[in-house]
């Protein structure tokens, strides 16, 4: 992407109403534009990050055995009357009417719809277990939309739904998602901790929230320090095998949000291992048994010929919230420091002297080597402006090329995360970034 032709706008002033760093930086870096309260347009830089986050979520869901579908955003009220949630859900639900005066709604979640789809086709215990997910926009009319995309009204969520024959199967599905979540967040460079949590309006009796620690988090959390030192990606899990050891490790150390906080269990932890902090909820998994299958008449024929209501769970990830959460965890005064896996572009080539033949030639070669994953700052701007913008946008690598270095065939390579700089030949620079 040549910056001279790209739509990658920045804001000079820090927007006054943005209270936290990620919100400020997303606005300043031109990632999103609020179009009305809690509703955002994603501009090219933000959209690329959102897609990278989404793709990691997708890959880990697929790996864990879930299958992707796409359900619509608009649902009929009838489905929600069947589960009894139409009235119970309250003012967070955006309710609409079509031209025939039929009651519709913009989905805040999809338990009812997926149960309806599944009951149409699943007839026998052989149709179980299954896990279906989609990545789709949700709408919740939050009382206080704030912190940018972290608490939007329209937001992108991955939601998966598992169907099992019995309790043991449902626990297995739950563990698969538990482990998939650990991996998903770790791949984005986040330290997400599963914590005992309330089930809220989804209902049910077993649930974990995944949170990252951040001063600006909206939840108060309590956890055992051991959980912060565990290497999640060290070995690939066998999703067909027994995942209990992984889940047991995490659940054997204390970690709870304040709704579930248990003073006695907390006090049993040595004081120097206690961590009490603020956290951001980025994912949430629930087991709720037959709550929806029973109320909505989903039944399959069991192995003994008798009808059974499948045991279900649901599993959400805040895909758009993650973009903000990743920035909360990776920024400094100058801007964003993207982890490589979700960076909008991995490399920025900064040409400090347009029109100098050696400088232009070196920049062209570097840019050509990474074109799809690089921005080329070929704007007629001062060096200081280019440095500041590259730091703000947070590309993991900056290749700085000026006439003095170019004459000697050298590139200055800067690592955004650490500030380290090196002078390298073109070939070495390319090899380093690859
Ligand atoms: P919160 O406690 O932050 O209101 P929630 O518990 O209501 O979230 P869930 O129903 O568990 O949310 O939804 C699954 C995930 O969707 C959450 O873990 C979060 O990452 C994301 N999410 C929920 N509400 C929002 C929102 N208003 N804006 C962005 N992401 C959201
Ligand atoms: Mg909520
Ligand atoms: Mg919550
Ligand atoms: Mg939740």
Describe this structure in words.
The protein contains 14 helices and 23 strands. The chain is an alpha+beta fold and 434 residues long. The strands form six sheets. Strands 3, 7, 8, 9, 10, 11, 12, 13 and 16 form a nine-stranded mixed beta sheet that branches. A five-stranded mixed beta sheet has the order 20-19-21-22-23, sandwiched between helices. The protein has a three-stranded antiparallel beta sheet with strand order 4-6-5. It starts with 20 loop residues before the first helix and ends with a helix. Helix 1 packs across helix 10 (319-329). The mean pLDDT is 96. It is 32% helix and 28% strand. Bound molecules: adenosine-5'-triphosphate and magnesium ion (3 copies). Residues 209, 281, 284 line the site of one magnesium ion. It comes from Belnapia mucosa. GO terms for molecular function: proline-tRNA ligase activity.
List the helices and strands and how they pair.
Layout (H helix, E strand, L loop, with lengths): L20 H8 L3 E5 L2 E4 L1 H20 L3 E2 L5 E3 H7 L1 H4 L5 E4 L5 E4 L4 H11 L8 E10 L14 E11 L2 H21 L5 E4 L9 E8 L5 E6 L19 H9 L2 E3 L5 H5 L6 E16 L1 H6 L3 E2 L5 E2 L2 E8 H11 L1 E2 L2 E2 L10 E5 L5 H13 L4 E4 L5 H11 L3 E5 L1 H5 L2 E6 L5 E5 H8 L1
Parallel strand pairs: 3-7, 19-20, 19-21
Antiparallel strand pairs: 1-2, 4-6, 5-6, 7-8, 8-16, 9-10, 10-13, 11-12, 11-13, 13-16, 14-15, 17-18, 21-22, 22-23
Helix pairs in contact: 1-10, 2-6, 2-10
Adenosine-5'-triphosphate binds next to strand 8, strand 13, strand 16 and helix 10.
Note the main attributes of this structure.
about 425 residues, alpha+beta, nine-stranded mixed beta sheet, 23 strands, about 30% helix, binds adenosine-5'-triphosphate, binds magnesium ion, proline-tRNA ligase activity, cytoplasm, protein biosynthesis, ligase, aminoacyl-trna synthetase
């Amino acid at each position: 992407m040549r910056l001279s032709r790209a739509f990658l706008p920045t804001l000079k002033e820090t927007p006054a109403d943005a209270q936290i760093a990620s919100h400020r930086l997303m606005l300043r870096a031109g990632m999103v534009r609020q179009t009305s309260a809690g509703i955002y347009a994603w501009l090219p830089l933000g959209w690329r990050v959102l897609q990278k986050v989404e793709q990691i979520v997708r890959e880990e869901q697929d790996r864990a055995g879930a299958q992707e579908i796409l359900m619509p955003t608009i649902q009929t009220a009838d489905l929600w009357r069947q589960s009894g949630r139409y009235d119970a859900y309250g003012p967070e639900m955006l309710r609409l009417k079509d031209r025939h005066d039929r009651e519709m709604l913009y989905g805040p979640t999809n338990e009812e719809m997926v149960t309806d789809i599944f009951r149409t086709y699943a007839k026998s215990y052989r149709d179980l277990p299954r896990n279906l997910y989609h990545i789709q926009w949700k709408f919740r009319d939050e009382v206080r939309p704030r912190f940018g995309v972290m608490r939007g009204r329209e937001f992108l969520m991955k939601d998966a739904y598992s169907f099992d024959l019995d309790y043991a199967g449902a626990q297995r599905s739950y563990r698969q998602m538990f482990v998939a979540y650990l991996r998903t967040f770790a791949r984005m460079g986040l330290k997400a901790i599963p914590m005992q949590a309330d089930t809220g309006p989804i209902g049910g009796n077993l649930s974990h929230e995944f949170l990252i620690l951040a001063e600006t988090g909206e939840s108060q959390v309590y956890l055992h320090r051991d959980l912060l030192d565990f290497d999640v990606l060290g070995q690939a899990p066998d999703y067909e095998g027994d995942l209990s050891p992984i889940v047991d490790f995490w659940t054997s150390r204390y970690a709870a949000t304040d709704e579930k906080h248990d003073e006695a269990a907390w006090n049993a932890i040595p004081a120097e291992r206690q961590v009490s902090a603020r956290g951001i909820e980025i994912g949430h998994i629930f087991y709720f048994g037959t709550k929806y299958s029973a109320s909505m008449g989903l039944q399959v024929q069991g192995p003994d010929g008798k009808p059974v209501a499948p045991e279900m769970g649901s599993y959400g990830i805040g895909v758009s919230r993650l973009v903000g959460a990743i920035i909360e965890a990776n920024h400094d005064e100058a801007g964003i420091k993207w982890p490589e896996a979700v960076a909008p572009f991995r490399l920025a080539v900064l040409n400090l002297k347009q029109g100098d033949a050696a400088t232009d030639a070196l920049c062209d070669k570097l840019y050509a080597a990474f074109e799809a994953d690089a921005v080329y700052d070929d704007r007629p701007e001062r060096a200081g402006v280019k440095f500041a913008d590259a730091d703000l946008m947070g590309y993991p690598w900056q290749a700085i090329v000026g006439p003095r270095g170019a004459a000697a065939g050298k590139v200055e390579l800067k690592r955004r995360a650490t500030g380290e700089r090196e002078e390298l030949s073109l070939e070495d620079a390319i090899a380093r970034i690859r």
